[in-house]
Amino acid sequence: QVQLVESGGGLVQAGGSLRLSCAGSGRTFNDHAMGWFRQAPGKEREFVAVRGWSTAYYADSVKGRFTISIDNAKNTVYLQMNSLKPDDTAVYYCAADPAFSLSQWKQGYGIDYWGKGTLVTVSS
User: How confident is the model at residue 62, as a pLDDT?
Assistant: First the structure.
């Protein structure tokens, strides 16, 4: 059974940092694109970051503040979030797919594996 399990969410003040982790199990994700989405209250889910073809891609809203990385030995993807803003408050979801299409990730469709999410709350 393939699973993605997120951790590291919590409450942080604006300007602070958090690091999210997403551990994969049930198969190796070394050859998968892995990334993050988020969904704020009352809003649609949106793309945050993905690492595919050994390159990282970011939404404009997080570029320069967030960093995605993958530890293949641990089957784990991370999201380092710095300079957090109240607008970053959301449930953050990890995702993975054996194929990689940046447009597919930016639109958030056709991705095979999803975690259940971890809540990040940024207070002002």
Answer: 98
